[in-house]
Write a structure and sequence with these properties.
Elements (H helix, E strand, L loop, with lengths): L1 H29 L18 H8 L6 E7 L4 H19 L5 E7 L3 H9 L5 E7 L4 E7 L2 E6 L2 E5 L10 H17 L3 E7 L21 H8 L3 E7 L13 E5 L7 H11 L4 E5 L3 E2 L8 E4 L4 H7 L2 E3 L3 E4 L3 E7 L5 E13 L23 E5 L4 E3 L12 E6 L4 E4 L3 E3 L16 E8 L23 E6 L8 H6 L17 H30 L5 H4 L22 H50 L5
Length: 610
């Protein structure tokens, strides 16, 4: 009896000591004595090495950051705490190149200083948990950056959103640094061949606003400057001061002399990014009737070892899908196999890997849509000196894809797709980098002089998608006045496609714009900040099951039935995952406790009192 009493007393004291330790640890964490462990794939809660390197590279003394904040509401206090933690990480990793202040703008002097710096006063509201009522306040939540003679600001930080905070801070530091130190990044964009322009307002349907990818980049990332490149039929050279050249989907042929001018530019050790395929779909064409024509680009790219075929890839394993309402009022799923959903799926590696998320353009990007793709393959004999890992396919369809060939292909939306042919996996994106041979080693030079081998390592990226940088549903569904006149919006168009263009924009365009911005980093060679860019994306969703093999020549009813079966399988999988997470893990913990208890009881029974 005395032994049991003694054991119980010792156990009680031990529990009190453990409780005291836990209270002390919590007290230390409350005053800042804690360490965060980041387990997210994109390292969202850890300062990226690129951000630290950027601040360390500053040449004009140090950058000073004034954080004007408003407190007093739970949501605001939590955001200010996270902001302070992040700024402390910047400061700790800056080698003394960054310092910051948290300024709660209460008095008129601080308010006036914040206003003069360009910050905008906002109204904030949150629920008081103690009194269960809504409270409101007004104030500032923004950052002011001072570096050298330059001063700029992030005028407003939404306190309900911490995702991407490092992304915007680092890009603003980069912007201020480039202005103060005179750093410029100029990128050429080929013109003169009826291209799909980066300035075309085709990212959203007309009723949602006129958005184009180039203005978005220019407004948010001012360190990039776009310059139109008109080759004038091949008579003009490309400006040597450009970091690289972008080619978007042409609408008419590029002459051989112009192609030789592009090759001349690449042979100087420059970068070339091509966002084009053989699939030409005209603007405002709701039928999506495609003309297959490479417009001469195949001659250039094949010389670098990337052969783009004259076809269209239709992927029935992972297509873009969007919910629609049928004429009977029942919900259904619209399937667009001409828009390939390219996912980063860890179950596929090597020659089956669908998206190379180590490549800068798609660094840590979980998935991206590839509209109107043509298949491509590599010919390593064209570039024998390039290392194997520098010449590779970076994007593929699933293994359940087919191609259609011919001069014209019917890609009409909402058709009853009946795929015919042999299921295959096709490359739809590729890159080659290194000391490249000229694409035109033989033939008449047409007055364009270029070395047989690049003077410095050159780089080629081919995204074999004619509307990768556009919203194909918005572009096809817009009225005939797509470009408008005198700022007037287009009239008419296909209402159903315009309705579907909004879900496409919401689901796709963030990754599209980010991938394009990453490509600009790749063109300029400034890839340190790729990890920062990935933090603006949401965590990827779970993938349920293997890619399912579609039935060949299914009728519409069979396709609907198969789609419903897939939904049922996905739902059951989700339910089982929820059950395991909610009940399975706790039960395992309880089972472990019971086993340990039984083991202790058994060991006690074996103890003999001599």
């Amino acid at each position: 009896m005395e032994r049991r009493t003694k054991a119980a007393t010792e156990s009680g004291v031990l529990l009190l000591v453990i409780a005291a330790i836990l209270v002390a640890v919590n007290a230390l964490s409350a005053i800042g004595g804690y360490k965060r462990i980041d387990t997210t794939h994109a390292e969202k809660y850890t300062l990226s090495r690129g951000s630290a390197n950027l601040v360390k590279s500053l040449k004009k003394d140090k950058i000073k950051v004034d954080a004007y904040v408003t407190k007093g509401l739970p949501k605001l206090d939590a955001f200010v705490r996270d902001l302070r933690d992040l700024l402390q990480e910047y400061q700790a990793n800056s080698d003394g190149k960054l310092e910051f202040r948290i300024i709660e703008a209460k008095d008129e002097k601080d308010k006036e200083t914040a206003k003069d710096a360009g910050l905008v006063a906002q109204s904030f509201a949150d629920t008081n948990q103690d009194e269960d009522k809504l409270e409101a306040t007004k104030g500032y939540m923004g950052l002011v950056f001072n570096y050298g003679t330059e001063r700029d600001a992030i005028k407003f930080l939404p306190p309900g959103q911490t995702d991407g905070l490092e992304f915007w801070i680092t890009n603003k530091i980069r912007e201020v640094r480039d202005k103060a130190e005179g750093i410029k990044h100029k990128i050429g964009v080929l013109q003169g061949h009826d291209e799909i322009k980066l300035t075309d307002a085709n990212l959203a349907p007309p009723n949602a606003g006129r958005y184009a990818i180039q203005p978005i980049i220019s407004q948010n990332f001012t360190f990039y400057q776009f310059q139109d490149v008109d080759l004038k039929g091949g008579e003009a050279e490309i400006d040597d001061t450009l970091d690289g050249l972008i080619i978007t989907q042409p609408g008419k042929d590029i002459s051989e002399k112009e192609l030789r001018r592009i090759d001349q530019f690449v042979m100087k050790g420059k970068s070339l990014a091509v966002f084009a395929s053989a699939v030409n779909v005209k603007a405002s064409d709701a039928t999506m009737n495609a003309e297959l024509n490479n417009h001469g680009l195949d001659k250039l790219l094949e010389g670098y070892g990337i052969k783009v075929h004259k076809d269209v890839v239709l992927d029935f394993g992972r297509s873009f899908r969007v919910g629609v309402m049928t004429q009977t009022g029942m919900p259904a799923t619209a399937l667009f196999p001409q828009f390939i959903n390219v996912e980063d799926d860890s179950r596929y590696e090597g020659e089956e890997k669908r998206l190379d998320t180590a490549f800068p353009s798609f660094f840590r990007v979980p998935q991206v849509i590839w509209p109107f793709a043509s298949s491509l393959e590599l010919d390593r004999t064209k570039q024998p000196e390039v290392a194997a890992d520098k010449m590779k396919i970076i994007a593929r369809s699933t293994q359940y894809a087919i191609t259609e060939k011919g001069d014209k292909v019917d890609l009409k939306p909402f058709r009853a797709w009946k795929p015919k042919g042999t299921w295959e996996q096709f490359g739809i994106g590729a890159t080659v980098e290194g000391p490249l041979k000229s694409a035109f080693l033989t033939g008449d030079k047409l007055g364009v002089e270029a070395p047989e081998k690049s003077k410095a390592p050159a780089r080629i990226l081919v995204v074999s998608s004619s509307q990768f940088l556009a919203n194909p549903l918005a572009r096809a569904g817009a009225g005939q006045e797509m470009q408008g006149q005198m700022g007037m919006p287009p009239m008419g168009g296909d209402e159903q496609l315009q309705q579907l263009a909004m879900p496409y924009a919401q689901l796709v365009l963030t990754t599209t714009i980010l991938s394009f911005k990453n490509t600009l980093d790749w063109i300029t060679g400034d890839v340190d900040l790729l990890a920062v860019s990935a933090k603006i994306l949401a965590e990827p969703t779970l993938s349920y099951g293997q890619v399912e093999k579609p039935g060949m020549a299914d009728d519409e009813e069979a396709a609907k039935k198969r789609d419903e079966e897939a939904k049922g399988i996905r739902h059951r999988t989700q339910v089982w995952i929820e059950i395991v997470l909610i009940l399975g893990l706790p039960l395992l913990f309880v089972l472990y406790g019971l086993i340990r208890w039984q083991m202790r009881m058994s060991s006690r029974q074996k103890v003999s009192l001599a």
